[in-house]
């Protein structure tokens, strides 16, 4: 089921990206100096516009993922503490169960 769902989602998405790349092959000049004057003397490079757009989207997705990951750090830390407490409680319950079983006479079991 998962593989069919992946095909249904990713094949059209890949086709859209492919068609976008084919339609936007023209080069654009990317300037890297925000204070550059109009003479074009600052550092720059030329790239196809589809690469610029797709790279920008990838950077945005990456920034969003990192932001989400950092935002969930307190939740993950609390879950780690809760797992440790649950583990400790299970061990204590098992010890108490063993103590209770050893204190009960054999004929009452």
Structural notes for this entry:
The protein is mainly alpha-helical. The chain has two domains: 1-31 and 42-56, no CATH class; 70-103. The chain is built from three helices and two strands, in the order H-E-E-H-H. It has helices at 2-23, 49-71, 73-103; strands spanning 27-31, 44-48. A two-stranded antiparallel ribbon has the order 1-2. The protein is elongated, with a radius of gyration of 30 Å. The mean pLDDT is 89.
Supply the key terms.
3 helices; 109 residues; 2 domains; mainly alpha; two-stranded antiparallel ribbon
Helix-strand layout with pairing:
Blueprint: H1 2-23, E1 27-31, E2 44-48, H2 49-71, H3 73-103
Given the structure, what is the number of helices?
Answer: 3
Distance between the termini: 50 Å
Query: Can you give the helix content as a percent range?
Result: 55-70%
Shape: elongated
The number of distinct β-strands equals: 2
Radius of gyration: 30 Å
**Strand order across the biggest sheet?**
1-2
Order of helices and strands: HEEHH
Q: How many separate domains make up the residues?
A: 2
The major beta sheet can be summarized as: 2 strands, antiparallel
Class per helix and strand makeup: mainly alpha
Q: What proportion strand?
A: 5-15%
Q: Which regions are unreliable across 5 or more consecutive residues at pLDDT < 50?
A: none
Rounded mean pLDDT is 89
């Amino acid at each position: 089921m998962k593989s069919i769902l992946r095909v249904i989602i990713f094949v059209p998405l890949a086709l859209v990206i492919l068609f976008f790349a084919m339609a936007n092959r023209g080069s654009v000049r990317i300037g890297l100096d925000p204070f550059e004057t109009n003479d074009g003397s600052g550092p720059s490079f030329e790239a196809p516009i589809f690469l610029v757009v797709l790279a920008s989207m990838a950077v945005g997705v990456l920034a969003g993922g990192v932001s989400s990951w950092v935002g969930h750090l307190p939740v993950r830390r609390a879950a780690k503490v809760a797992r440790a407490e649950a583990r400790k409680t299970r061990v204590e319950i098992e010890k108490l169960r063993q103590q209770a079983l050893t204190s009960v006479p054999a004929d009452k079991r």
